[in-house]
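F.,

This is the one I mentioned.
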């Protein structure tokens, strides 16, 4: 494996964890807001 390939794989490896954590947080927030919007009172 060349140096460039090694650098690319290291960058992808280190970038993966924050992306997974942040996408999980956004997903949970979106589902929570959706569930809350279903249960809120529709009357004004």
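My design for it:
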């Amino acid at each position: 494996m060349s140096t460039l390939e090694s650098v690319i794989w290291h960058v992808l490896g280190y970038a993966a964890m924050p992306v997974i954590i942040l996408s999980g947080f956004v997903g949970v927030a979106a589902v929570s807001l959706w569930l809350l919007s279903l249960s809120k009172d529709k009357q004004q």
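DSSP finds one helix and no strands in the chain.

Talk soon.
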